Amino acid sequence: MTDNNFDYDSFVRNPPNPIDINNLTLQDSLFSSTSPSLSPCNSFNISSLNINGLKMFSQNKIELLNDFFSLKRISFGGIVDTHIHSKQMHFLSKRLSNYTVFSSVLDTSQHVRSSGGVSLFIENSLASHVHTYTSLSSRLLSVDLYFKGNIKLRIFVVYIPPTSDQSLRDDTIDLLILALSDAKRLGFHHAVCGDFNMHLDQFYPLFFNQPQIASKRIHRLFNFLLANGYVDFTPINFSSTSLGTYHRADVVSRIDYVWSCPLLKRFLLTSVIFDVHELSLSDHNPIITYYDFSFLSSSIKPARARQLQRRSRRIFSFDSVIPSQWEDFSAFIDNLCNTSPVAFASWHVNRMCEYLHTHIIAGANAILPARTVGNDHTPKLPKDLEILIQHYRFLNRVLHSIRLLRKYPLTFSSSHDRKWSGYLIRLNNIFNLYKSIFSPIPVLPSSLLSCRTDNFNSLFCTLSHASKLLRGLHLLKEKEFQDSSIKAHLASRDQNFDTDISSFINSALSRSRRRIVLDRVFIDHPTTPQLLTDPTDISDAVVNHFQNAVPIRSSPPSHISALPNRWRSEYSPMDSVSPDIYSSLLSPPSLEEWLSTVSSMPNGKAPGPSMITYEMLKHLGPTANSLLLILIRKCFASADIPDFWRQAMVFPISKPHEWRCQLKNTCPITLLKVIRKAFVKLFYNCLSAILAAHNVLKGGNFAELPGGTCRDPIITLESIIHDANHTDSPLWILSQDISKAFDSVNLTMLKFALERIRLPATAITLILALFMNRSNRVFTAHGETSSYWVRIGIDQGEVISPLLWVIYIDPLLTVLKSEMLDPYILRSPSLLSTDTVSIPDISINNLVFMDDSTLISSSKAGLEHMLSITEEFYSLNNTSANHQKYVLISNSLPLTTTSTILPVEFHLFLSSLNDIPSISVTPLSITSSFRFLGYGLISKA
Fold it and tell me: Transmembrane stretches, by residue range (predicted)?
């Protein structure tokens, strides 16, 4: 739309609220009486810089970039044209310890003239608000942040190719317009920064005076931005000495921008271009746009407070403990444990536990070496290299300040001399510390006043030469550190090849371990999504999630007599099992049995909040061990455990997919007390041996009994598939997905399952005591949450939990076996049968390993029958099955292409326990591969 009253010349020469660039540069001096970086008060900023690639001189450029970010206190720093992969950028960005980097993927295809690569550096207190980031292409990155008050901020970093690569340029522009439209539709405050390779000063006259030309496709991006109310605040200048964002030879232009959407426009303060031409960082100058801090203030204040109050924890350094220290540790604790065994045996288990815990920790604190680390602890550079980097940065700051005095000599005042006296002492200390590289040691003037005679040229040359020498030493020391690190990693790799093949493969394939930092929680509400960053809000959300992660959908009856006929019969005590087989189960263990169990426990495990580790238990002295054995025996005799053992710590780890700050994408690992785990291990060893020796469990679960392995079910399923392919026998395979198996175990139904195998009442009481009246805390980046009561389930990290699950699900497997309908019959080859020896056929309708259940049939009706039974069991036991994740393979379905496969409807039998009439599953193509127990199988060659 043309505005005839619009004064274009006035607009471009006097943009709204500009800052005088020269004055700003003058303040970027160590001699400034104000802060080292002048920026509008109460502001945050977004910057953009084309860095011209980081493959060459990457270390030097990263150092200069760090200096720039620190000097200008950059909040969001967009870097484009990096030419490196995201992993390489992540490695280089470790130099910028105050920033978190997010990077795009890199396009290395041959048809692309430039591989691109864009990144966004976010100051750490702001990075805690990041929910997710998306690499839309190698040249377009978006990062989403959430703040209090339902404020959503999306920042784009873009690198639009020059016109020499028009096809890629068009694709990038179209992708950016689409992304901006999507951000607007979702209600995000958003900004886009980067190198546009376009001249806004040439487009303005067209937009305001020739809209027909401005609307042409070639101008579509600028037309879209201006027509939709986006604003770029950067000053536009036209003189030959203007400070543009791009300079090469005699060409000075402005092709880098920071555009703000209409929602963000009212928070705009100003925008400046920062001169880095003399630093040889790039042929582009960075642009910085400032915004009113009130946009973020309600969320950032607590974030900055947390940054200043980082939590720490004490960890013991077992790898550096020498034998004599372990001897002192044992003797120290034995000396503390001066209570007589008779008196100790009369105590309650709670008092026993507290007594031993207090003395073991006292011995560890007194004798064993330890160190304090933060929750964000990461290995650092060697101390001498860190100090060298600090000195090098200080020298460069002084050099930059002298450069400014050369450029603006009239700004010199007496305050410069006063500050110089302090800097002179530190500079001389630096020269003396590294005198081996200075020959001779530089002599600096005692006063800057004398340097005015040659306009500071001599001092500038001296400091410039010193900076180059210190830079050379820095590169040398860094190379030495890198070489030593590489050698250490090579040695570790060679060792892993022999001792830890999994780590070797992960290293060879550059696999990175998925980690999460629970410093924020995203609430995916359909209308008001929010990202929680306040520690109290996070704690409340975490507790609410883990306490209610498994809904209690049903309440089983108090006695099996109230169960439906099928399940009442199955849960009745098994006639084939004699109670006498358990006679030794709760016998008091000997000291040798206890010590053998402790010695079998693994080292290097996280101890949880108790701080007692297996290493400590293995080095207790005779007195402490005798008292500990009394506690263990009393737990067996009383069928109870100390209350302290019922308190646990939950450590969330990431599931195989992206974390995205959503608690549903985590898997909880429970850290239990190590003495408890050793006690339960002792009990488990005895119980599992009894169950295996007497073949108590009839369901055929291959897990958690001596000799159990996933090898057998894998071979069995391979044999079934092979047989079906060669005999053209109908085959239906359905893999079930059981959600949160351990967490959903109902203790009443577990009691029924234990009574079914005729376990003694005392043993049942002891097992249930492990999981009753429990409380958990969850470990977050801000420390532990408040304690909460566990409502249902058994602990994921408990030694006996897998065995209890096998016992828990055995009634279902037994019913499936006893009520077979159209199982798959695996017949023996006729060549193997003779007149005298006949190998019987094998009927198979399920293969189960732990909580991985696979139903097998020769007909659809057979699967429907089994699905009806499993739904009854899941309803009765509060077990949740995710029908959407069921996997179906069948050779009895029409052969179609993958794109035309239709869902298969399984009709179930309704009952008092099952109200689901049907389950719909989309089958895999018969030629597709699928995974069974982590093993890849092909259903048809």
Answer: none
Do 706 and 634 sit in the same domain of this protein? no
Both 287 and 343 in one domain: the answer is no
Rounded (5°) CA angle 475-478-484: 140
**Rounded to 5°, angle at Cα 487 from 485 and 490:** 110
**368-377, 737-746, 890-899: range with highest mean pLDDT:** 737-746
pLDDT tens for residues 853-894? 899 999 999 999 999 999 999 999 988 888 988 999 898 887
Do 263 and 346 belong to one domain? Answer: no
End-to-end Cα, the chain, rounded Å: 65
Residues 189 and 232 in one domain: yes
d(CA 926, CA 438): 74
Per-residue pLDDT tens for 841-854? 889 998 888 888 89
For 882-939, what is the HEC assignment? CHHHCEEEECCCCCCCHHHCCCEEEECCCCCCCCCCEEEECCCCCCCEEEECCEEEEC
Distance of CA 510 to the CA centre of its chain: 16
217 is a domain residue: yes
DSSP for 137-180 reads ETTEEEEEEEETTTEEEEEEEEEPPPGGGHHHHHHHHHHHHHHH
| 773 belongs to a structural domain | no
Helices (H) and strands (E) in the chain, counts: 29, 35
pLDDT given for residue 937 in this prediction = 63
Banded pLDDT at 49 (limits 50, 70, 90): very high
Task: Evaluate whether residue 855 is within a structural domain.
Answer: yes
With beta carbons less than 8 A apart as the criterion, state whether 406 and 457 touch: yes
Query: Rounded to whole angstroms, how far apart are CA atoms 436 and 450?
Result: 29
Range of the domain at 446: 383-490
Distances (CA, A) of 564 to 8, 154, 756, 825, 872: 85, 56, 16, 30, 10
Q: How far apart are CA 629 and CA 631, in angstroms?
A: 5
Q: How many CB atoms lie within 10 A of CB 483?
A: 10
Could you tell me if 368 and 408 lie in one domain?
no
Q: What is the mean pLDDT of the chain?
A: 84
Cα distance between residue 401 and residue 33, in whole Å: 13
| 586, two tokens | 């709760």
Q: How many domains does the chain have?
A: 4
Q: What is the pLDDT of residues 491-537, one digit of tens each?
A: 888 887 777 777 777 777 766 667 788 888 888 877 778 888 888 89
What is the CATH classification number for the domain harbouring 936?
Answer: 3.30.70
Q: What are 221-263's pLDDT values in tens digits?
A: 988 998 898 988 876 544 445 567 787 766 778 889 999 999 9
CA angle 568, 573, 575 (to 5 degrees): 120
What is the reported pLDDT for 236?
57
Strands 775-780 and 647-654: parallel
Among 847, 896, 551, 510, CA closest to 701 = 847
| Pair 73, 155 in one domain | yes
- The structure's pTM equals 0.70
Contact (Cβ atoms closer than 8 angstroms) between residue 588 and residue 634: no
DSSP-assigned letter for residue 647: E
What separation in angstroms does the CA of 823 have from each of 176, 337, 891, 920? 56, 63, 15, 21
Q: What is the pLDDT of residue 36?
A: 40
Q: How many Cβ atoms are within 10 Å of 382's Cβ, its own excluded?
A: 13
Distance from C-alpha of 82 to C-alpha of 413, rounded to nearest angstrom = 41
Per the document, the length of the chain is 941
762: in domain: no
Q: Of 307, 332, 364, which one is at a domain's C-terminal end?
A: 307
Q: Are residues 158 and 251 in the same domain?
A: yes
893-939 pLDDT, tens digit per residue, is: 876 555 577 899 999 999 999 999 999 998 988 777 777 766 666 66
* Same structural domain, 317 and 341: yes
% of residues, the chain, pLDDT over 70: 86
